[in-house]
Every structure is written in C-alpha cells, then in structure tokens.
Amino acid sequence: MLDIIKTRRSIRKFEDREVEKDKLKAILQGALTAPSSRGKRPWNLIAVTEKEQFNQLSQCREVGSSFLADASACIVIVGDPTVTDVWIEDASIIATILLLEAHGQGLGACWCQVRNRETKDGNSSSDFVKSVLGIPAQYSVECIIGMGYPGEEKQPYDEDELPYDKIRYGRW
Ligand SMILES: Cc1cc2nc3c(=O)[nH]c(=O)nc-3n(C[C@H](O)[C@H](O)[C@H](O)COP(=O)(O)O)c2cc1C
Fold it and tell me: Which residues are listed as membrane-spanning (predicted)?
C-alpha cells in the first residue's frame, strides 16, 4: 500500500485501450469500503465507459477537463448534500481511494474538479454533468476520475524533496 501511495502521479494521457470490465468492477467494489462520516456514505458513483460520453464530460470545464476525452473509463462522484454537511469530505475520500486503486491496478488516473467550477459559457460544471448523465436535482457532482492505461510516464516524487517542513511534531 505504501508503495502504491508513493508512486502515484496524476496521469492525463491514456493508451487507446479498454479497461477490462472486471478490473473496473474491482476498483468500484474496493471504493465502497471508503470511510464516511457516521457511515452515511453520501455518495454515488457513475461508471462511464462510452467514448461519446467522455467527449461530453470533457466539456464540463473551460480548462482542466479536456483529458477526460481520451480516458478509457470515467467515474463520476456524485454527492448528496441532503444526507450530511460533510459530503464533500466523504466524496473526496472515495475519490482519493479510486485514484490509488486505479494506480494499484496498473492504470493511470487523474481527478477533474467539478464542484465550484464552470463551463466555458459560465454555467455550473456540476449542473452540466448532471444534465449529461441525468442526475436528479438534489445531488451535486464533486469530481470525475478519468482513468485508463497510462500513455505517459511520470516519476514518483523524490523522497529527499518532499515538503518535510509541512510536518510538525507535538505542536505548531
Ligand atoms: C481537489 C483536486 C482537484 C483537481 N482538479 C484537477 C482538474 O480539474 N484537472 C486536472 O487536470 N487535474 C486536477 N487535479 C490533479 C492535480 O493537478 C494534481 O494532483 C497535482 O498537480 C499534483 O500532481 P500529482 O497528482 O501527480 O502528484 C486535481 C487534484 C485535486 C486533489
């Protein structure tokens, strides 16, 4: 696990190769174990595997979402703010787990922020994704994890260059 954490990087270029259904299913299944506040699981995951839908989702932002067009699978993380006031934290945790699982399965993946972002026309990115995927009004879209077989190689962070000054012991 530590090795998976240490070697993960955001991958935005992908091979033109399908992610096996079983692999995707295993990743989704693993994500369902994510911790959530009071165990409320205020999230839903939509696994998207159609190229046409990737093209649509890649337009949810003016910049920052274009890499989704070349993905082989997108997992849309949909939160329900009516369930808990900490749905953003819960959605972010499951998104992070998905990133790590994808990497652990030999895939590359990257987070595309949707909540609090806008399309190039100035509309809400969350509303845009909701209309593309038919998501009911009460929900909000946190992010989309685009994944696929890596089409770029990124070196893990150099352990000697990590920001150790961010860590304090005992008190500030
Ligand atoms: C909350 C969050 C939002 C992000 N949003 C985007 C995004 O919209 N588009 C994108 O290409 N990358 C996005 N990223 C990926 C970051 O750019 C990336 O994690 C950062 O540059 C560090 O690189 P690394 O993941 O390779 O360590 C996001 C990451 C996080 C955690």
Answer: none
